[in-house]
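[Q] Does anyone have a clean structure-token version of this?
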Amino acid sequence: MKWFKYLSSGQFCGWCKINSYGCVERTNKHWQFNWKIIRDLIKMGFLYAWKPLEEQIEIIKTEFGDILLLDETIKGILSLQESKIYEGVYLASKKGHVEGLSVEVTADELKAMPQVNIASNVLKKPVFYLPPITDLIIATHFLGTLHVLIWIYYVNIQRELNYQEIKKIHSKILERIMSSLDQFGVVKDYDVPDEGYYRKLKQMKWDTQGKRLFQKLEDMRGKVMVDRDWGSASSTFQTGEMFMLGFLAACNALNHQRNSMLPEDVIIAYKTYFKLLNTDISKLEL
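[A] Here you go.
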């Protein structure tokens, strides 16, 4: 039982011993081995998320300083620390998970909405998200985007969404955002995403630098949440945001006839999100 206990808890390694009291005794080799792991992780950047916010920002600027609108993106993430709208969206997400934010919509009613129908037929929903074993863009990205839009819409109107409003989010608003991203509030004409669009999304990959910037900004945004002291429930909210931002970055890449996401796609994804947070999307002229 002791062996199982220590192995399952991750507290025991091949160089440690259990003394006569049933406690783990660490050996010098144990500490040397674990310090080597930590040192290697630091070199590889895996402990970046543990760094103070100021150090994270300095690292991002050093590595990606030539990326257009990077400073504005960093300022936008920092502004979330005090944003009342952002707090409202987070609280809406918590309420949505418990009791819902809209009238009940059946599966058949959702499938009747063209974008939902296409996405459900094209994008996969694997048990585990493990790219490149799974597709990079999956159904969860699509669903995460819709969830965030519903949370924002709810904050705008401060009441339960009716069926027509749910339909508007799943069609006109979503289509406009996918096609126009941060220009969603000004465009008049746009191409409605069709099945071919989703099949190309399904084939999307990360550019190496695009992925690095996405992860570093994700860690920075996570640090902001820790500073707001929202507790463990914020991890679900942050995951929803992450899938939405990845989906928006993929849409921007595809709209520019690319099959890989670059750093500039990540920047536009964040710019779109910030604009959504500061726009009453319930009043969009569609």
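[Q] Thanks! Anything notable?
[A] The first strand starts at residue 17 and ends at 18.
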